[in-house]
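Annex B, item 7. Sequence and structure tokens for protein A, then protein B.
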Amino acid sequence: MKRILPCLVMMMLGLALSPRGYASGDIPGPGDVFPDLTLPVPKEVSARGYLGVSEGDSFQLSQVKAEILIIEVFSMYCPHCQREAEDVNELYELIENDPQLRGKIKLIGIGAGNTPFEVNVFREKYQVPFPLFADADFSLYNSFGKVRTPYFFGIRLKTGRPPRVFYAKVGGLKGAQRFLKEIVQKSQE
């Protein structure tokens, strides 16, 4: 028994200090590996160029050419998402207009429970300039924990490593500039 207790303590300490995984159905948080989602390649040449992906049927999240990926989980029917659309578009513009951030930080949206038609309606109504992906069957949504909308993930992308979460939060941006500053700061921690 005296030998087992120190081993258990060391094992528990090792688990507590190692980068944590998350159980299926849990929401990945800072330090967790984010699922390397498979998404359809956008039809628009500009969207493919923005993401840095080639033509084809699909691509993995880890193939996006960026250091940081901000994922907004939204629903066309979510009134909070509708109100946030202007701020999220401003966030995109702030990133794209900053030579130090352009190309390093990318933004995508995933329409939880939304068909391609519904995502396109949202895109057109709110003039969303970044790629949006439909998730009509909730398969993507289920893979990252059935979050409420809007939900924002900040993901670090490094070649040869799985995507890792550094930011995860439900709710609005509370201002695009404030949010961007927080994302940049947390991505460096």
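Protein B:
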Amino acid sequence: MLPVFAISQESNFGNWMIYFGNKKINSKWNLHHEVQYRNYNAIGDLEQLLLRVGLGYNLTEKTNLLFGYGYILSENYIGDSDDKFQVNEHRVYQQLITKQYFKKMSMQHRYRFEQRFVEDDFKLRFRYFLGINIPLSKKETNKLYLSAYNEIFLNTESPIFDRNRLYGGIGYKISNSVKIELGYMNQFFETSNRDQLNIITFVNF
């Protein structure tokens, strides 16, 4: 679990506690799981709790198909007041990840389709993620790398545009199974935006 700090219009200092995990079952199957605990402030002011799990299957060495489920609890402020209301969401999703390699650089495409059960409402959303990874150190060690991505969220009903995330950072590979990243992300909404300084960990085992 590592913190992700956020700077936004609503709060000058926020915190996300994040864990991403991927368990290799065999050469074909994998289990994805993650926990995100997001706060408006440093800690103790819950913005969102996200739990996600998925079962993936390798179609090829560079292509993975995954079916998953997510539970999201959000606590949203009412206007400019200190009062909040809770929103529960159950989410089913399907995603396809493909990878490409160009000399040192690697590229990842992720296509995700979500069926969202938000309280008594049902919504559909499509997400496209394009990520780039560029090693900075020698091939023998391959510890430091640059990471960048852009992800766009599109609804099937108006408003079509949901949000866009633009990220750039530097990563360090601790071992073959653990790496961490420090980066900046700007999240664009329909009428606002949010800047974040992210610290993220990835665990594969």
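Comment on protein B: The two ends are 16 Å apart (CA to CA).
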